[in-house]
Amino acid sequence: xxxxxxxxxxxxxxxxxxxxxxxxxxxxxxxxxxxxxxxxxxxxxxxxxxxxxxxxxxxxxxxxxxxxxxxxxxxxxxxxxxxxxxxxxxxxxxxxxxxxxxxxxxxxxxxxxxxxxxxxxxxxxxxxxxxxxxxxxxxxxxxxxxxxxxxxxxxxxxxxxxxxxxxxxxxxxxxxxxxxxxxxxxxxxxxxxxxxxxxxxxxxxxxxxxxxxxxxxxxxxxxxxxxxxxxxxxxxxxxxxxxxxxxxxxxxxxxxxxxxxxxxxxxxxxxxxxxxxxxxxxxxxxxxxxxxxxxxxxxxxxxxxxxxxxxxxxxxxxxxxxxxxxxxxxxxxxxxxxxxxxxxxxxxxxxxxxxxxxxxxxxxxxxxxxxxxxxxxxxxxxxxxxxxxxxxxxxxxx
Length: 398
Hints:
Helix content: over 70%
Order of helices and strands: HHHHHHHHHHHHHH
Structural class: mainly alpha
Radius of gyration: 33 Å
């Protein structure tokens, strides 16, 4: 073949060229020009064992240029990752929450698989149970909530008259704290503000529903692929350290699973006991308040305190002594839960000292809100386990 400058070079048949059939067609040697020789060489180095050829000699990583490139690339990647995490913070929190719930449900799925069920069927049964619990919660909460809200609206004129009567306890509270005046100021807002508030509330509710749906879907996928996720995570660890990491990580997963399942059991006990107490003393809205107690009991330390104060304030509508008795009940129940129920239900699944619990929950709530408060204790347990198994022995030998 004659080149443009008058020289000659070997003609290479098209079938010998390493040109992919699905790239850059139509393909001809004349159009390739100087690349044709490289394609001929590429076709020779491509073998069955190395279809893409053997890697060439690595670049000199010690050269000033490569050192500078590595440094600049490291800074750029770090800045980019931080910016991406900050931008996708809310979504990452939802993904982390779904993974946390999946790890919490994993013991139930593994237990069913150990009884001979396929993993897909076991995941379906556990997820259906979770969905049934959520549907049951809303089915039990919404009708009485609507009914009792309607009753409250119907009783509002009587309550208003009682608030103006200085001989009643509600009238004394109104006179002392100016409740009626504050309520009127709250209602005396401009129409546009009301509309904006309603629209804002609608956006919040819609966002909460979408977030709940996303967490539910991700939880199902995480549960279904948990063996593969576990295997791929462990493959990221060097082979020499993999056995030790497997032991530590599996112990952490077991702690998270024990915490989630144990917390659900204790919350159910707390809600049932609260419903019995509220019903005995005929405190209004017993079912709604019991569900409120059960849900908030999932949030360590802070949740039970909020639910106890709320129920005591509602008990004020019955009488002062009943409110004091209700407050005393929640204090006593809290002691029983901490020193009797938690050790028996949780066992050694999550062994975290009380001081560490309070600090972890406070930091978690400050950093990530309710999600951080809920996940703080198992994360603290995991950190303590890693410190006890890795750092502390080294410091003792130093």
